[in-house]
Design a protein that fits this description.
The structure holds 2 protein chains of 2 kinds.
Chain A: H1 3-9, H2 15-23, H3 31-40, H4 46-57, H5 62-73, H6 79-92, H7 97-106, H8 111-121, H9 127-133, H10 139-152, H11 158-164, H12 170-183, H13 189-192, H14 199-212, H15 218-224, H16 230-246, H17 249-260, H18 264-273, H19 279-292, H20 298-304, H21 311-320, H22 326-332, H23 338-347, H24 358-367, H25 373-389, H26 397-405, H27 410-424, H28 428-438, H29 445-455, H30 461-467, H31 473-483, H32 490-499, H33 505-518, H34 524-532, H35 545-558, H36 564-571, H37 576-589, H38 595-601, H39 607-618, H40 623-632, H41 638-647, H42 654-666, H43 670-683
Chain B: H1 3-17, H2 26-39, H3 45-54, H4 58-69, H5 80-95, E1 105-110, H6 116-128, E2 136-142, H7 145-153, E3 155-156, H8 166-172, E4 173-176, E5 179-182, H9 184-187, E6 190-194, H10 200-203, E7 209-214, H11 223-236, E8 237-245, E9 259-262, E10 267-270
Parallel strand pairs in B: 1-2, 1-7, 2-6, 7-8
Antiparallel strand pairs in B: 3-5, 4-5, 8-10, 9-10
Classes of the chains: A mainly alpha, B alpha/beta.
């Protein structure tokens, strides 16, 4: 589109025509075109303004764009354009900073808007001039400078902001306080204390106490939990949590003691904050109630379990009560709806030995018969955890209840089976008697296999071998899975090898897994043939991916070097599931000759294969192996970079260390940063 | 569930259906998916991740996940002010448009859950008297089979009627075991299908529409999935078609392809 045409279209009454005209503005960088775009930033339509901002910020010469935008800051007649110019300058970013700093000095355009733009950009070069602006004669400018320094996020600004707390006007002092809070700056308590008495500053001053790190502020903070102003109460909540996180364990304990001894009004204030619209505040309030450990607040915390955004914190808070929570929670249960009952049952095992109280276990045993599956399954899991950790009280109730629950639908039966298996580790005879009396037949047979798999002994193998021949594929699979936990003997190996020919995929896969878990070396040739599938010459071979994958993993676990040909053949397979397992197992069993295969694995299309290759190369001593893993630190996927960092943790060479450090400088992903930091720390 | 396992599984769920869980919802995801480990006889969430990546039966598992992680709370005549705008301003404007073959109306309830919104739209259209029922097609989609089954059945308990005028209840519903069932004349105007909003092949099955309702659905998506969904809505709307979002939702930072339409009762978006 010619510029004149664009200019005419931008005058059109039709918003769509104006919006479309912007697309026609030439991208060749002519100044006149830039001016048209800046002009369009003042359009009455937000769509046109947004599109114009987008075009300006994509201008090929950012400094030129910045100059045009700064001129627009001086327009008093079109506020929309001015505001859009601030937004656009923020997007242009660092190239605009020198011009903005000049404009701040010269003062031809609105200095306040220049300051706003500098705050959005966040460049450290602005700290000095903005700190100087804190002493400007204009109060609005002082406040804007304080706000911008808060956005800049540079700690060099802290002294100037702290000095501004002594300024004459409230606006500047408030802006400075808020900026200091944004920076998380530690302002001494003796400076903050007088500000608590100023209503306009109270909320921000309370928040600042959270960063002060001074236990002497505790009485003020606890008292503020009962403040009439909601803002002050919420600031106190946030501050107490922040303080708790930053101080020593002795001081944390002091905070908790203060909360425990807090007056009822303070606890009421905390409970009221549980209803805040802010999830962060609800979580903070829940944490504080956990530290307070006051029984009267348990019902409120209980209700907070309904909120999925705060469930974990609410549960942790209730667990913090310890054994004191057991009886009140037990009393609450009958009145609660099924979902909430399930949540309470789940946290009961975390209450320690009190959870093993006979009354509580009887409650849980009865709950396994609950009509609703969620609380029934949760009760079963809880019994399993309690039984495993501290043992169940004497009496048939809990175990019998779990046995009955095996006849329920899926998740209840699964939970009951897992629980019986866990309990059987301590109370084998009791569990085994029930299993033996019933036998492995019928609908609950597969679940009983799971029980035996978890707690069974060598003498139970015979029963399971019988189930491996059953007509039900579900039972055969369960039997194979269970056998993997009971130790090997030739008869078991033979039966499981034969089960590699089962007509059911799930049984074949389970048999392969079991052979791997048992370390059955005699099964290696059979497993290798299964793993290679039809690519291996001769006879019918298993082409089902889950079976081949299971066989491949089993080969690696068995550790027989005879498996290496199969592993090498599959390490470059296009199927990521197979390649990743083969690469992982080559990492364990392979030789120096396998390094080229591992290097090739780093270029696989499937990221699981790439990660396996990186981990495998991490175990190699050669410089080329380390170099390849270092390169993987720059992979586009965060999980690959994390795997590479973890793989380098054991290397001691300087090049790896340098690579980790260099990556840490630029890495934005928190999980990857954690892995790199840990790797560096591990190396010493 | 470690943070790494959570992110890997979350990314897979997001790629499948657009739904995104922030880091602080790890606990929730753990609770909702933990029973799947036992059901699939898996030991760890790392195993579960591999199952979702590679198992030939993984599609069924993704559908199971959808049933467990989607929130489907809704009711009839939700956000009444917006429905007033639809009935009093949007419907008359569409009815007044000259069209070959006469007046007709097509509406898409995107993310319809158990169907209350789609049936509400049908009732409002009938109440307006502006269109012959045979010329009206309302499509409802959701990714969850369970709620679609409820929608097809059309029987609702009291909670679904918390905002429903009694006269609508009497006129458009009849008593049924479990609550009230939508009458046939309303159900005849509505079709339901299992369509994933970010699956272009699925969405291609829908015709062009005059109005799209997508309320309190996009809030569960990440930014990229929201953009894709909004792009899809744009492609599915006729010129002059309307997009109605939830009261706390907007297209800011998602799209400038829609114009903002100031109606008496609401702000809505329109495809120019």
């Amino acid at each position: 589109m010619e510029l004149d045409e664009v200019r005419r279209a931008l005058q059109s009454d039709d918003e769509e025509a104006r919006h479309a005209a912007l697309a026609g503005v030439p991208a060749d960088g002519a100044l006149e075109a830039l001016q048209l775009l800046v002009e369009a930033m003042g359009d009455e339509s937000w769509r046109v303004r947004k599109e114009a901002v987008s075009r300006v910020t994509a201008w090929p010469r950012p400094e030129e764009a910045a100059a045009g935008l700064i001129v627009a800051l001086g327009e008093d007649s079109n506020i929309a354009r001015r505001n859009a110019a601030v937004e656009a300058l923020g997007l242009v970013g660092r190239p605009a900073v020198p011009l903005l700093l000049d404009a701040l000095q010269v003062g031809v355009v609105s200095r306040k808007l220049v300051i706003d733009a500098l705050g959005v950009i966040g460049d450290a070069r602005a700290v000095g001039p903005l700190s100087a602006a804190l002493r400007d004669a204009d109060a609005n400018l002082r406040a804007a400078a304080a706000e911008a320094l808060g956005h800049l996020g540079r700690r060099e600004a802290v002294p100037a902001l702290q000095a501004a707390l002594a300024a004459g006007d409230l606006l500047t002092r408030l802006a400075a306080l808020e900026a200091l809070n944004r920076l998380g700056a530690s302002v001494p308590y003796h400076i903050l204390a007088p500000l608590l008495g100023e209503p306009v500053l109270r909320r921000a001053a309370l928040e600042a106490l959270g960063f002060a790190g001074d236990a002497g502020a505790l009485p003020d903070m606890i008292a503020a939990l009962a403040d009439r102003s909601r803002g002050a109460r919420e600031a106190a909540v946030t501050a107490l949590q922040a303080l708790h996180a930053m101080v020593s364990s002795e001081v944390s304990a002091l905070i908790e003691d203060h909360l425990h001894a807090a007056p009822a009004a303070a606890l009421d204030g905390l409970c009221a904050t549980l209803a805040s619209d802010s999830r962060a505040l609800r979580r903070s309030a829940a944490a504080l109630l956990g530290w307070a450990r006051r029984a009267e607040t348990l019902p409120a915390l209980c209700q907070l379990l309904r909120d999925e955004g705060t469930q974990d914190v609410a549960a942790d808070a209730m667990v913090a009560f310890g054994e004191r929570a057991a009886e009140p929670l037990q009393a609450l249960c009958p009145e609660l709806d099924p979902d909430l009952r399930a949540l309470i049952f789940e946290l009961l095992p975390r209450l320690g030995t009190a959870a093993a109280a006979p009354q509580l276990c009887e409650l849980l045993a009865r709950a396994t018969a609950d009509d609703e599956p969620e609380p029934a399954a949760a009760a079963a899991r809880a019994l399993g955890l309690i039984g495993q950790a501290v043992g169940l009280p004497r009496g048939p109730g809990p175990v019998a209840g779990l046995f009955q629950a095996l006849g329920r639908e899926g998740q209840v039966a699964s939970a009951a089976a897992a629980a019986l298996g866990a309990i059987g580790a301590r109370a084998y005879d009791e569990v085994h008697t029930l299993v033996a009396a019933h036998g492995l037949g019928g609908p609950i047979g597969p679940y009983l296999c799971r029980v035996l798999g978890a707690c069974g002994r060598a003498e139970d193998r015979r029963l399971l071998l019988g189930a491996l021949r059953d007509e039900s594929a579900v039972l055969r699979r369960a039997a194979a899975d269970a056998l993997s936990g009971l130790g090997g003997e030739p008869a078991v190996t033979e039966a499981l090898v034969f089960a590699l020919s089962d007509e059911s995929i799930s049984v074949r896969a389970a048999a392969a897994r079991a052979l791997g878990a048992l370390g059955a070396a005699a099964a290696a040739p059979a497993l290798a043939a299964v793993a290679l599938g039809s690519s291996h010459e001769g006879g019918d071979r298993d082409d089902e991916p889950p079976v081949r994958a299971a066989a491949l993993r089993a080969l690696g676990l068995i550790g027989d070097p005879a498996a290496l040909p199969a592993l090498r053949a599959l390490a470059t397979n296009a199927d990521g599931a197979l390649a990743s397992i083969a690469l992982e197992m080559l990492g364990r069993l392979g030789t120096a000759d396998d390094e080229p295969v591992l290097h090739a694995g780093l270029r696989h299309d499937d990221t699981e294969a790439v990660k396996a290759a990186a981990r495998a190369l991490g175990t190699r001593a050669s410089a080329t192996a380390r170099a390849a893993v270092c390169e993987a630190l720059g992979h586009p996927r965060w999980d690959v970079r994390r795997a590479a960092a973890e793989a380098l943790a054991s290397s001691t060479d300087a090049a790896s260390r340098a690579a980790l450090r260099a990556r840490l400088e630029v890495e934005a992903d928190e999980l990857v940063r954690q892995a790199i930091t840990q790797a560096l720390a591990q190396r010493g | 569930m470690s943070m790494e396992e959570f992110r890997l599984i979350r990314d897979l769920i997001n790629a499948y259906c657009g739904i995104f869980f922030a880091d602080d919802l790890k606990f929730v995801v753990h609770r909702r998916l933990a029973p799947r480990l036992a059901a699939l006889c898996l030991e760890t969430f790392a195993d579960y991740h591999r199952h979702l990546r590679y198992d030939p039966g993984r599609r069924a598992e993704y559908e199971e996940i959808v049933e467990r992680v989607t929130t489907n709370e809704t009711y009839f005549f939700r956000e009444a002010y917006q429905l007033d705008a639809f009935r009093d301003e949007i419907l008359p404007e569409i009815a007044a448009r000259p069209r070959p073959g006469g007046r007709r109306l097509t509406v898409w309830s995107a993310g319809c859950a158990s169907g209350e919104e789609a049936y509400t739209v049908a009732i409002l259209v009938l109440e307006s008297g502006l269109f012959q029922p045979a010329q009206v097609h309302i499509f409802g989609n959701d990714i969850s089979r369970r709620v679609l089954q409820l929608a097809r059945k059309g029987i609702y308990g009291r909670a679904s009627f918390r905002q429903t005028d009694e006269r609508y209840l009497r006129r458009y519903f009849r008593e049924a075991p479990g609550g009230y069932q939508v009458r046939d004349e309303v159900r005849a105007m509505v079709s339901f299908g299992q369509i994933n909003l970010i699956d272009l092949d699925g969405v291609a099955l829908l015709p062009e529409v005059d109005v799209i309702f997508c309320r309190n659905v996009l809030i569960y998506f990440d930014a990229e999935s929201r953009k894709r969904a909004v792009g899809t809505f744009h492609s599915k709307l006729v010129h002059g078609g309307y997009l109605l979002l939830g009261h706390s939702e907007s297209l800011m930072n998602l799209s400038t392809a829609f114009e903002l339409c100031h109606l008496k009762n609401d702000l809505v978006y329109r495809k120019p």
